[in-house]
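USER:
Class, as today's exercise, take the chain set out below, and explain how the chain folds.
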Amino acid sequence: MTRLGVAVIGCGFQGGIHARNVTASARADLIVCADLDADRAARLARETGAQRSTDRLVDVWDDPAVDVVVLATTTNTHHELALAAAQSGKHMLLEKPMAITVDECLNIERACAEAGVIAVLGYKFRFTAAVVAARAAVPRPRVLLAQTLYDPAASTHAWVNDRAASGGRLVSSLVHAVDLLRFLARDEVLRVFAEAALVADQTLAEPDTAVATLVFKDGAFGSLVHGTAGASGLLSTWSFQAADAGINATIYDHGRRLTLHQSGAEDTTVIDPCPEPFEAGTAPLFEALADAVAGDDVDVPGPRDGTMSLLISRCIEEAIETGQPVTVPAL
């Protein structure tokens, strides 16, 4: 199999995780670490053994050795960078949210389709062992519950509080939860309703915590509690339940564990071997991208998934603002 040449653009926290996954993969070589901060790019290149570093994106777009770019930058840069990657014929792993607006997401969809490049969204939780097992155990859940409560953003992640940079305090990570609910339900969201409030940081200009109800087209429904009211030490930051008659799959420990309850049987638990919660699912996500680039028929979160997750999240925002249920528009 031909090895993939990879460039990581954005050498912060998430870019570092992706760079280490590329280095660890038997199917890829880390060609370049790129960042507007030349020192940060050089530091990550040294840490991961990348061939070089740069603060000039043209060095990435013009390099024939680069087959894939990982875009791990702030959300407000995704549209421009994804279009440039597509125009340069580079496949991409694009972090979430896909872009700031739905129109920008649709532009990225079109650009990738026209250029014939693969784009995979950074919805890593789809690839954790707990989620894979939950989806197999409860293939058509009727009730879904999600609790994605964080501690207030640390100073190193304060950019998420800047709506211009992140797309909004809620939406910046709400898209992750929405995508996983869609993935577990195997269905699209028909209608949403939500309420929100400032809970953790009274200095913000918009709500930081929300409770939303999602109704799916097949009649299933979900409840989502999301924001910065503080992580649960019991369930962890990231916990989901998918339930049908007599069966309940509970995903917890930041997506790394699953406890499966079936009426009349003993509970069983699955533990993801990944020791670091923020790395959970990221390595198999990259391998799935490599499979897709190789032409394999694999189920990956693509551009339409990125668009839909943002669209639904914006509908949740609209429901918060209007106090009314919002029907998700057709694209």
About this structure: DSSP finds ten helices and 15 strands in the chain. Residues 125-276+310-327 form a domain with the Dihydrodipicolinate Reductase; domain 2 fold (CATH 3.30.360.10). The mean pLDDT is 95. The radius of gyration is 19 Å.
